[in-house]
Amino acid sequence: MVREREFPTPLATALTRAAQTPQQRQANMRFAKAQEKKMGRPEQIITKKQGPQKSPISKIWIILLGFVLCGGVLFELVKLFF
């Protein structure tokens, strides 16, 4: 026996979705218009200018991490010679 899939009816999907406010509808229309303008253009034109990328962690944390990783070696060398 083959069981048919049950697809939601349009009424069921309409009842589960919230109604759009006029502000949302206008925002969606503006977004759709902006997306249509982008269609067919290469990505280089679409992307905005990107300045130099900032590191996600600060220099202080990088120095601290370097000290934690290499500091043990330094202390062992000092202990070995003195």
TrEMBL record:
Keyword Transmembrane helix tagged: yes
Gene Ontology terms: cellular component: endoplasmic reticulum membrane
UniProt membrane topology term: Single-pass membrane protein
The keyword Nucleus appears for this protein: no
Chain positions covered by the region annotation Disordered: 25-50
InterPro entries: ER_stress-assoc
Main location: membrane
Protein's cellular compartments: Membrane; Endoplasmic reticulum membrane
Residue spans crossing the bilayer: 60-78
Keywords on record: Endoplasmic reticulum, Membrane, Transmembrane, Transmembrane helix
Function: Interacts with target proteins during translocation into the lumen of the endoplasmic reticulum. Protects unfolded target proteins against degradation and facilitate correct glycosylation.
Family: Belongs to the RAMP4 family.
Protein name according to UniProt: Stress-associated endoplasmic reticulum protein
